[in-house]
Prior knowledge:
Helices cover 40% and strands 29% of the residues. By secondary structure, the protein is an alpha+beta fold. The chain has two domains: 13-48; 54-133, 2-Layer Sandwich (Alpha-Beta Plaits). The two termini are 17 Å apart.
Amino acid sequence: MGKVERVGISLESELLCAFDKVIAGQGYQNRSEAVRDLIRDKLSQRRLANPKTNAIAAVCLVYNHHSTKLLQKLASLQHCHHLHTIASMHIHLDRHDCLEIVTLKGKVSQINKMADEIVSLKGVKLGKVNLVTTENDKT
């Protein structure tokens, strides 16, 4: 972390009170760290809007493990894009349903393309993608 600079902001008392309640509930010890996290998140969102940005993603899938050929298709997709797949984790939820978490790495556009292919496989009940930038530029 570089040099720390102090800044001042003006907020309506109701807004500040609501913010304090939220950050206290999240366990923040002070406003400064909460504001820093908000700024980091906004900068990350901006970087992730660029399809050429390097990123990582967790693709979470819930599916019925009895779905015909779903596991083979999922494995095949991961092997076809082996440079992008970092890891996967398989979790048994109940007698029929499983959770698969596939971790991908690459450019945002590549990750989104592969994640769309995975989530749209026949037999996937629910799929969510969580992208996080790995770049830390000053944009």
